[in-house]
Specification:
The chain is mainly α. It is built from five helices and no strands. It has one domain.
Length: about 140
């Protein structure tokens, strides 16, 4: 399958519309009754992974893309990163560090944590995860 501008536009638009709605980050809504959001999220991520694989396979090192495509790919990477960090720390642990916590506080917290997402992770990986969570929290304060 050849990656055309039209196909790439369609794929990116579908994914952004499906994943981000109006393209703004929203705070999670806590429901009291189950509504199968996890199942829906898994389907969306599966579809996104399939599209990402197809796009990756069709991009060559010497390809040149218009700035709007570069911008969309950057946004997609940022959104996926934000979700990943949320699931790695905020969502699973269910706690937040003090709003004035620095990167060192995050690293110490991650090193001491017995949360399931840290099981089997090296000290270096926990440190990387902590820095990513710190930077994400710092970015969301803006």
């Amino acid at each position: 399958m050849k990656l055309t501008e039209s196909l790439l536009r369609t794929i990116i638009k579908e994914q952004l519309d499906e994943m981000c709605g109006d393209h703004h980050m929203v705070k999670p809504v806590h429901h009291h009754k189950p509504d199968h959001e996890g199942n829906m999220a898994k389907r969306q991520m599966f579809k996104t992974a399939q599209y990402a694989t197809e796009i990756f396979d069709n991009i060559h090192d010497d390809d040149v893309f218009p700035s709007w495509i570069q911008s969309k790919m950057t946004k997609i990477a940022d959104y996926i990163g934000a979700v990943k960090h949320y699931l790695e720390y905020d969502h699973v642990v269910g706690e937040k560090l003090d709003k004035d916590a620095d990167a060192g506080d995050y690293v110490e917290d991650f090193k001491k944590s017995d949360a399931p997402q840290f099981k089997g992770k090296s000290k270096k990986k926990r440190q990387e995860m902590a820095i990513a969570a710190y930077l994400d929290a710092k970015e969301s304060k803006k």
